[in-house]
Design goal:
121 residues, mainly alpha, 6 helices, 78% helix, elongated
């Protein structure tokens, strides 16, 4: 039993050292791979999240599945955005510009309103 534990620790240690050496020798490739899997672009990150929510067998490590996900989600998002822009009018745009994420009784909102109405103190 002690021999198996020692062998297991040696194999795990060898794997960790090998992975560390790979990262040290090719940091650019590892970073590019990581950014492919977890993109900094919010639209792509949201697309991958939606694809996984739709299909739990989605594998973000597979580049072909990621590309298919981007085509599917981003294309449909573009169609929705184009359709919503076609129906926007001046009243809707003015109302949307006036909406904020703060509640009406939030102190920050009240202070901003007072500053706008009465000027700086």
């Amino acid at each position: 039993m002690a021999v198996r534990r020692t062998v297991r620790r040696a194999v795990v240690g060898f794997g960790i050292v090998t992975a560390g050496a790979l990262v040290a020798m090719h940091p650019g490739a590892v970073r590019a791979f990581y950014l492919d899997i977890y993109p900094e672009d919010p639209a792509k990150a949201q697309a991958l999240t939606l694809c996984f929510a739709e299909n739990h067998a989605f594998n973000r490590l597979d580049s072909s599945e990621r590309d298919a996900c981007y085509r599917h989600v981003l294309q449909s998002a573009g169609e929705v955005a184009a359709a919503s822009m076609a129906t926007a009018n001046a009243v809707d745009l003015r109302r949307a510009a006036g909406q904020t994420g703060m509640p009406r009784n939030d102190v920050r909102r009240l202070e901003q309103t007072e500053t706008l109405l009465h000027g700086a103190h």
